[in-house]
Amino acid sequence: MKQFIVLIGIAVIVMINTMSVISVESTTNRKRDLNRAVAAAVKHTVKETMSQGQNSITSDKDMIGHFINLLATSLRSKGDLNIKVMGVNYKEGLLDVYVTQKYRYVNGKYGKVSVRKCAICE
Fold it and tell me: If DSSP states are collapsed to H, E and C, what string results for 20-81?
């Protein structure tokens, strides 16, 4: 009986440690994925805005819409996105965004990661 109680205690400790490692790894992966996706979307949007012969981006709203579309299609992790546009100017090729992703941990609690990226085409 004593060995059974010790075995259950060890199993609980292993489970808690496993959940902790999964939570930390999840946060790291989401931060890396969000950073990569936002950087690529900002860079591609600004590059396309300033390219010769393009006629799909003709206003600041079009530029923001293009960025959101690129971000949504390139993001691999699931979660609620909150995008704040800090600055935009399609004529000058400027886009500055602050993106926050809210997600749920394995234990049911919520976490969030944020990234801010700015790109200016020269």
Answer: HHHHHHHHHHHHHHHHHHHHHHHHHHHHHHHCCCCCCCCCHHHHHHHHHHHHHHHCCCCCEE
- 8-40: pLDDT as tens digits: 999 999 988 888 888 778 788 889 999 999 999
CA distances from 22 to 18, 29, 65, 74, 101 (A): 6, 10, 34, 23, 18
Average pLDDT, the chain: 87
Q: Of all residues in the chain, what percent carry a pLDDT higher than 90?
A: 34
Structure tokens at 100: 């926050």
Tell me which residue has tokens 């979307």: 41
Six token digits for residue 4: 């059974």
**Given a cut of 80, is residue 102 above it in pLDDT?**
yes
Cα(63)–Cα(122) distance, rounded to whole angstroms?
17
Rounded CA-CA distance 90/77 in Å is 29
Residue 108 is given by DSSP the state: S
